[in-house]
Amino acid sequence: MARYRDPNCRLCRREGEKLFLKGARCFSDKCPIERGANPPGQHGANMRRKTSEYGVQLREKQKVRRLYGVLENQFRTYYQRAAQMRGITGENLLILLARRLDNVVYRLGFAPSRKAARQLVRHRHFTVNETVVDIPSFLVSPGDVIKVRDKSKRLEVIHLALRDAARSADLPWFRLDKAHLEGEMLALPQRSEIPTPAQEQLIVELYSR
């Protein structure tokens, strides 16, 4: 399957804000956004700041897609599914993305970034309801219990991430048990409970063209 393999900081520079793609580096002085880096490319410093309505909508879609590490066709599929659900399409889209297993692992604090969470899931370090799941796009449902496998409980990356993270502390739709390295989704999140800095209505307007 195709996957973005270029520098992650390039994506943050293109969007002009932190996407938190590299874990602890994003909170350090090494972050290019903290240093006021220009957009990537030889003409980045002279990039035209005024954009069209379409450009604003496109940038918002690209930002959310890159935040969750989702490819273009995948993202469109999520949007189509969200449009068929009851409720507000933009909010449904963010709820679907928030339910991805790699995002849940990241939000629980078991990984320093979504990219690292995706790799840990691929390497079969987690179970959902006692069943090993190695599909990062697996949608977690209310009542599902996510655990670190017994053979993976000594992984340093997980313990370091838990030490540095407090991502689930203010998310009422999670229950985290650090002692047993497990978490549970208590309910589907509301839009106000998803800490994703996005204007989802712009994405709806883009796909509605």
Counting helices, strands and paired strands, the structural category is alpha+beta
Terminal residue distance: 29 Å
Tell me the overall shape: globular
Strand proportion = 5-15%
Order of the strands making up the biggest sheet: 2-1-3-5-4
Radius of gyration: 18 Å
CATH class of the largest domain: Mainly Alpha
**Could you spell the SSE succession in H and E letters?**
HHHHHHEEEHEEH
Number of helical stretches of at least 4 residues: 8
**CATH architectural arrangement of the largest domain:** Orthogonal Bundle
Count of separate structural domains: 2
Assigned CATH superfamily of the largest domain: Ribosomal protein S4/S9, N-terminal domain
What fold name goes in the CATH topology slot of the largest domain? Ribosomal Protein S4 Delta 41, Chain A, domain 1
